[in-house]
Hints:
With 153 residues, this protein is mostly helical. The protein contains 7 helices and 2 strands; from the N terminus they run ααααβαβαα.
Amino acid sequence: xxxxxxxxxxxxxxxxxxxxxxxxxxxxxxxxxxxxxxxxxxxxxxxxxxxxxxxxxxxxxxxxxxxxxxxxxxxxxxxxxxxxxxxxxxxxxxxxxxxxxxxxxxxxxxxxxxxxxxxxxxxxxxxxxxxxxxxxxxxxxxxxxxxxxxxxx
Length: 153
Ligand SMILES: [Zn+2]
Ligand SMILES: [Zn+2]
């Protein structure tokens, strides 16, 4: 909590939080006021993730490795599904929460490629957490698939 507060103060001091528009999922779902700080950190993260230069560097890095531009959690490929309309569309997500790394320079290695659905799920406020990595989310997807296969377990 202390680290989160520190990251928040730094974000506010740098002005980064002010021009980040409210995200649709910031609407209070559960009425828990302690979720407020988490939402502000998410807003700071989403704002940083909109940095076009950083996003482009990440995509170039993936291309150089000859890897597909697709979601690292569910493998959704916008180009494969939507054709030219979706070609090269992808969202980027901080792998390490900002309340752990603090306000620092983000490198392409710090970012993951995600589809819009998985990105929302990574930032959804659930069970006191509003930050997941693609690995975390893949585990959620696997668990849900296991449950669907045998609902009794
Ligand atoms: Zn996905
Ligand atoms: Zn994100």
